């Protein structure tokens, strides 16, 4: 038994792994239905735009329980089995975003200190035709063509192994875009460095408003 009660382990395991243009999976319905209302209710009241680490956010209720499950060794073991790698030994950095700005979403691969990145979306609906929808891309310049487009709706999960060609991004969007990101990194020093960098970025946003 995994001991996971909020995450729908069967849905995560059933999501097919794709290898083109890099290794990723896209799953949906990854929350157990009875938990969704409370996850929605307990989502943090974040006023700042961008990603905040879990240390910077007041977590409560079922949302806090969800974060605990996402960061657990049990869940890392399930994902590691999907991708055929050891994730349990990797430190994890979890960040949360509620508000997006137009400057977010530029095409990138993630830095080499990351082993895998996972995104879990929690928006009830998404009416924007393209804006804010993450895309798996073939190069670092173009949003089209794309291999897959990720709807940022409640219970959608996207995860990928970091590679030199793991290009992804989304067209600019401004507004509420609820998402939790978990990054498995190579060592604890990298984890602390990323936390410090994120805190500095948020501090500067507080001063300069951007």
From TrEMBL:
UniProt-listed InterPro entries: Pro_4_hyd_alph_FE2OG_OXY (IPR044862)
Domain Prolyl 4-hydroxylase alpha subunit Fe(2+) 2OG dioxygenase, residue spans: 107-185
One Pfam family it belongs to: 2OG-FeII_Oxy_3
Top-level taxonomic group: Bacteria
Protein name stated in the entry: 2OG-Fe(II) oxygenase superfamily protein
Source organism (scientific name): Methylorubrum salsuginis
